[in-house]
Description:
Elements: H1 2-28, H2 54-72, H3 78-104, H4 112-130, E1 145-147, E2 151-155, H5 158-179, H6 185-206, H7 223-244, H8 253-270, H9 277-280, H10 282-300, H11 312-318, H12 323-351
Antiparallel strand pairs: 1-2
Amino acid sequence: MREILVAGGLALFVSLFGTPILIRFLAQRGYGQIIRDDGPQSHHTKRGTPTMGGLIIIAAAMFGYFFSHALTQVAVSASAILVIGLVCSLGFVGFLDDWLKVSRQRSLGLTGWQKIFGQGALAAIFAGLGIHFADQDGFTPVSLYLSTVRDTSLKLGTVVVVIWIVFMVIGTSNAVNLTDGLDGLATGASVMTFLAFILIGVWEFGQGCAVAPGLNCYEVRDPLDLAVLAAAFAGSCTGFLWWNASPAKIFMGDTGSLALGGALAGLAATLRTQVLLVPLGGLFVIITLSVIIQRLYFKISGGKRVFRMAPLQHHFELLGWGEVTIVLRFWIIAGLSVAIGLGLFYAQWVAK
């Protein structure tokens, strides 16, 4: 269990003290945020703020995870390595998008379809590899069964599992990307969700079939090591939030948002809590739905809008809410969503 504290603490330290170094590096080279002309006018004051902060989030999490294993002499797991591969590869897609924006000095990087294709291909590789690498008990990182708060009896099969994981990864990474519109909003919400995955991983380990065999045990390959990885991401996001909170000194960019979305989807898939990701990431779901509703209604109604602007946080900005007020209230929603998700997780174990 000490690996969780070590990983989280080291990631927090590296992110907290490494972020200002990255800020200076990016500022010296003029790698600043490009602001959309059709966004809220108040955001133009943020033009030039260093972006691509996701680099330090990923680096700090990797340092915390691997160094904690080096200190404790515990081997890394196949499940965690697969999630790390997904995170780093999605982070690279986001980095390409950010780099194109700052190099062209325009708010256009990769096209939407280019990003989706990259996300989908990487997610398919993750899912395809995840159904292999069985341990001595026959458990693979990714199950062939649909999971809610644990694996259900509904077997999906290889092809459907890959498609389902691709949908999860694309949906979650883009949801975090849409949420990353106000200082600290996506970072703080991500911290809460990663903390939930720490609790879930520890619980599944303590009630795992290898530790506590019985009708109510969990069949998950590496729950404790996935909790360590979740702690590393929680720590790195917390350290980054110190500098990303309003007024932000740095933005995570697509480098960070796509990587964090991949981490959340990867942890949900490997911890057998795929559908539970919906309530755990409730804020991300709500904000994504606001965009979908806005676009569908705009097409159906011939140009009318439900919200003044989507994503939802910008709607409240145009209503006159202050940025800090919106972020704090949305964090409350994120916290309540995590509480509901954890409640559903524990309630199922008690009722089974």
